[in-house]
Amino acid sequence: MSQPLYRCFSDLFSEGFSVDWGIGSFLVVSHLAVLLLTPVAYVYAPEGLWKIMLLWTVVHMLVGALATTVYAHRLISHGAAKDIRLPTHAMFLCLQLFAVQGSVRRWSAQHVIHHAVDKTGQVHLDPYSATWFDTAWRNFLWSHMLTYLFNHPPSEEFDAAFDAKSHAAIVWQDRHYLPLIIIANFVFPMAVGAMLAGWLGGLCMLMASGAGFVLAQHNTWTVNSVTHMWGFKDGLWSSAKNNYVWLGPLGEGNHHADHHDHPRDFRNGFGWSGWLLDPTRYAILLLRALGLVGGLNRASRLQEAQIISHRKVRDSAAISSSSVWQQWETRLIALSEEWLAAAKAWDQTRLEHRRLKQQIKHVGSTQDEVLRELKGRLDGVRAEVQRARQHFKARKDDFFTALQDLRLANLAVG
Ligand SMILES: [Zn+2]
Ligand SMILES: [Zn+2]
Question: Ligand 2: distance of its center to the CA of 81 in Å?
Answer without folding.
Answer: 14
